[in-house]
# Entry
Amino acid sequence: MPDNPTYPLAESVPDKIVSASGLGLSEVSLENVLSGSIATSDLTISRATLMLQADIAQAAGYPQLAENLTRAAELVAVPIDELLRIYDALRPRRSSLEELHTLADQLEQQFGARRTAIMIREAAGAYADSGLLRSDGGPD
Amino acid sequence: MKAGAMSLLKRFQVRADRPINQEVFIDEWSEAGLIIIDSPLDPAPSIGVAGDCVTEMDGRSADEFDLIDRFIARHAIDLTVAEQAMATESVELARIVADFNVPRTDVARLVSGCTPAKLIDVIRHMNIVEMMAGLQKMRIRRIPANQAHVTNRKDNPVLLACDAAEAALRGFAEEETTVGIARYAPLNALAVLVGSQTGRGGVLTQCSVEESLGLRIALKGLTSYAETLSVYGTAGAFVDGDDTPWSKAFLASSYASRGVKVRFTSGSGSEALMAHSEGKSMLYLEARSLLVVKGSGSQGVQNGSISLIALPTSLPGGLWGVLAENLLASMLGLELASGNDALSSHSQLRKGAKLMLQFLPGTDFITSGYSSIPKADNMFGGGNFDSDDYDDWYALQRDMLANGGIHAVNETQVVSVRQKAAAAIRAVFDELDLPRIADDEASCAVFAYDSSDIPERDQAQDIRAAEAVLSGSLGVVDVIRALAKQGFRDVAERILEMQRQRLIGDYLQPAAIFDSQFMVQSALNDPNDYQGPGTGYRLRQEPEWEQLKYLPSVQDPRSMNEPLAGSGLFTELRKAEVGSGPEVVIGVGPAFGSRLRRTISALDHSDVVAAIVKGVQSEGIPCRILKVFHTSDCAFIGHTAAKLSGSGIGIGLQSKGTAVIHRKDLAPLTNLELFSMAPLLTLESYEAIGRNAACYATGRAVSPVPVVVDNTARLRLIVQTTVLHMIETREVCTTQSPVEMEVRQQSDAG
# Structure
């Protein structure tokens, strides 16, 4: 794939796009749907494609969006139940400082989610200073 | 005067009953956050930067930062321009926002270094017209678009599919559904997906439900965007909403990780409503919210007070503030879906005026939910504009040369697309063993006004099926297969293309939508390039202008009065001479009874003449009819008749029915009585005109013929008047003298 493919990717590199499960764009055809060789779970965007979109956003002057898409790229492999569990853990007064740090470490080690882990550690610090950790009162 | 008190003056009583007086207007109360801008507790702008850290912002040092300050300082301010931006005079920044000579991207670069208080200090210098000009430039996508609400009270899937298809056909770029009963969500999402892609390929859809449910439905490929992520300007409001900026940012990334477009929601008044305003103004808190949106990496936002619209509009400067919110979002480089979804006023005048603030500059989505169904079926509690208002909306687009994101379609197209959507969703339900959609249910849904026209479904069975869909493996691939197997290959292909696009992710970029060929249009490849007259999006030079100027009711003025065949209603006898003795002469226009045969109020010319003659004769004197060719002007026709009358009294009568009683010694443009409102004249009026003319001719005392006043007549009939008068004028022959005429016998009339 070229280093800096131009936007939109649908026009510049459609033949290089691969789903999270490794399916090429041209394989996503009605024939393959009818023959049963594609499952809904095959139709998920890949980490590499999201990273490309992040690069495109960064180059276009949208650094925060780029950062979000980078985190998204890291989360591609994280199962949805796990995503929802982390989201809950990040709600006010759901987690202790330690739990948030453990969560961040796990994400980083298991999924290579470095940017997401930084975000979670940052949240932990902010919650600690704002009384939003679980031990700070409210429901356990 | 207190509400409910009886007014002494009748006009006050009438005004008290007007819709505007059902609104609540209040004084500012800054401690409660009930103030649009400039609360005494709003901080002054400031920033301190050390390396890549903000050490001070808006009067607070880093160790005093609350949750929101901390997130904004860390994520939302571009420190490379912060000091420059903060050092620039606010009024100067305001001027470059409004000044079309300064490119959008230059403004956006500086704005990205502003703190919340600085943003407010900038916006406070702008009046509403300057803000509209600013929005026209700062909107990030070049072409405006619109979003539809598609819901119904019964969560009826076939009606949802029909309505989604019709909304797509009308051009909505996004469709948002929600549920009456939460467990219906997967079926509603499915129905709107199938319906929308039946109407037009490339429409983005969402199902607004609780986040975990929303994510699961998206994962099944049944939706493609989400905009339920609400943010607030104070920590207290955030925590009451059981979220933090970090939890929302994580959620946004989670959606994006599944290829789902995300838009956040904010809007003034939410903090005050939640009793967490901290005494700050609505706009200051909205600036903080917007910086949280931006810092989270959301590509866009829906704001403009959204469902709380009546709260800011109760205050002085309310609508100014709503536009300010919208402009701030665009200035920050966010895709803007600009409210206009919840009912904003009892007053149609006030509601329409509010709409213009976003409609005229154009926004990425003029509404963040136009109710494509009647209000009663809008499950968002929305319906500021609904399916009954389509024709008003289309007329406004046509009037203003402004693209409001949708276009008119004719009934045949709508019937056809609704039938197809009903058949497609039935096929999917059949093929996937979902509860059956009966024949009559499908046909009711096609032709329904709203869900009250649809037979009841077995809701328990539907909910069981929906739960099974959610917990089972059924996903978009099964839907595509079902459609293809049942003969809806085109719809199947479009839904499949949506999945391909999901793998590509181009629509995750700012303000992205698809055209019907699935070509993405976003701020990256279709950026707003407005820089003053002659630049940017100009509807009249765009291909969609042909579509937008079309209205089903448009008439061709050339065909409003087709030429008539045959020889006319009158026989021409001889050149008219000056008469003698008491008589009344009726002069008719050059097209009278020949090229034209009826007045504007559809009275036959022969009946009109007969009525006048009857009136004249009732006073015992004769009447002559003559046709005037040298003029089509009513006064000159009447004056010509008067000059040829033995009594000096004549009646002028144009083909459209306008009449005048004239006397030969008067100046042509004065008269004895003028009946300019032809649409209001009846045969009785014409008879009275004849009678009065006879009285003038015989010197009897006369009261003028009473004239009815109808202020809408001109509104309704001015086009017809113009066309009729033009036809009559085309019959003018300046060299031809008046000719005496008689009514042709009916048997030989053409």
Summary: Chain A touches chain B through 66 residues (CB under 8 Å). The first helix of chain A runs from residue 9 to 12. Chain A has seven helices and no strands. The radius of gyration of chain A is 19 Å.
